[in-house]
Amino acid sequence: MSGSGTPGQGAASTRRGSPSGALLVVGDVVTDVVARHRGLLAAGTDTAAVIRTVPGGAGANVACWAAHWGCAEVRLLGRVGKDAADWHERELAAAGVRSRLVIDPQAPTGTVICLVDTDASAERTFLTDSGASLRLEPGDWSDTLLDGVAWLHLSGYLLFSEQSRALVALALASARARGVPVSLDPASAGFLMELGVDRFLASVEGVEVLLPSRDEACLLTGLPDAADAAAKLSRHVPLVVAKQGAAGALVARSGTVRSRVPAAPARALDTTGAGDAFTGAFLTALLTGAEPEAAAADGCLAGARAVEQVGGRPPVSS
After folding, report:
1. Is residue 292 pLDDT above 90, yes or no?
2. Residue 240 belongs to domain with CATH number
3. Is residue 280 a part of any domain in this protein?
4. Which has the closest alpha carbon to 35: 147, 122, 130?
5. Which of 64, 70, 146, 298 has a C-alpha 20 to 30 A away from that of 98?
6. Structural domain contains residue 185
7. What's the pLDDT tens digit per position in 296-309?
8. Per-residue confidence (pLDDT) for residue 18, from 0 to 100
């Protein structure tokens, strides 16, 4: 397992104590094509860019950041095409993640084109071909996946297809039966608009921790203010941690924002995967005994580290 990075980055959480079980992440594994350009795209002609192909996927990124942050055992369930299965399995293993990748017999591995404006904000736009990633289905689930698991995390991308939504329902029911807490990251404001707020909230019933971005929290509540949105969501889900990017994070419980956690300083190069880094570090901290506010501070630090590099995964030591 990788433990490289800023001093304290991988070890900050482990000093709190040892987790009593593994973190299981169920989510998307995709190939990211990151194109970094400056300024507006030139329609109908060429725009100079620096292009890299890297492993990605919100679920896979969370798992890798959790392992990087010091989580003793991280597992991942995902679905890929045979075109890139071996590569993804090697990359996950190198990051310290035990993966169970279902190979789809028909669909290729999902691909996301990440257009990153290299101006100060390093803001990104995604073009997404979900491919095999949203073809996870109930038949890919087994209750034995929860053996030795202390926490289950679900990528919200799984809610955006009927078959993977059915797997989410099955995994939630299995986790509840075993007393395993569950967290979920809504994943995409654009896809949430298509799914619908009511369907989303019904799908996450039983989830203990919700980790939306600012835009996702506001979309799910219809409120323009992120703090008001986080507070309202915490009436549906016991703990809401709203990720605010450069504004840090909000921790809300029982209809009230209990803490505002400042962001860690960073020089943004690529914001792809920053929210996944936050989630991976946050869950690792929770599993090692941190209170949510302290765990959110870990999340902000990981997010800052993520934006200072290209791609959504942490660095892997050679």
Report:
1. yes
2. 3.40.1190.20
3. yes
4. 122
5. 298
6. yes
7. 999 999 999 999 98
8. 59
Q: What does the pLDDT look like over 154-196, one tens digit per residue?
A: 999 999 999 999 999 999 999 999 999 999 999 888 888 888 9
CA angle 270, 281, 252 (to 5 degrees): 100
Q: With CA atoms as reference, report the closest residue to 133 among 212, 97, 198, 187.
A: 187
Residue 313 covered by a domain:
no
Contact 250, 260 (CB under 8 A): yes
pTM of the model: 0.90
Place of tokens 């707020």: 197
How many whole angstroms separate alpha carbon 29 and alpha carbon 46? 30
Tokens of 205: 């019933």
Sheet arrangement for strand 30-37: 50-56, 30-37, 110-117, 124-129
Residue 18 in any domain: the answer is yes
Contacts of 83 (CB under 8 A, 6+ apart): 108, 109
Counted domains in the chain:
1
The rounded distance, in Å, linking the Cα atoms of 229 and 209 is 15
DSSP string, the chain: ----SSTTTTTTTGGG---SSEEEEE---EEEEEEEE-SS--TTS----EEEEEEE-HHHHHHHHHHHTT-S-EEEEEEEETTTHHHHHHHHHHTTEEEEEEEESSSPPEEEEEEEE-STT--EEEEEE-GGGGG--GGG--GGGGTTEEEEEEEGGGGGSHHHHHHHHHHHHHHHHHT--EEEE---HHHHHHH-HHHHHHHTTT-SEE--BHHHHHHHHT-SSHHHHHHHHTTTSSEEEEE-GGG-EEEEETTEEEEEEPPPP---S--TTHHHHHHHHHHHHHHTT--HHHHHHHHHHHHHHHHTSSSSS-----
Q: Which domain holds residue 301?
A: 14-26+60-99+135-307
What are the two backbone dihedrals, phi and then psi, of residue 186, each rounded to the nearest 5 degrees? -60, -30
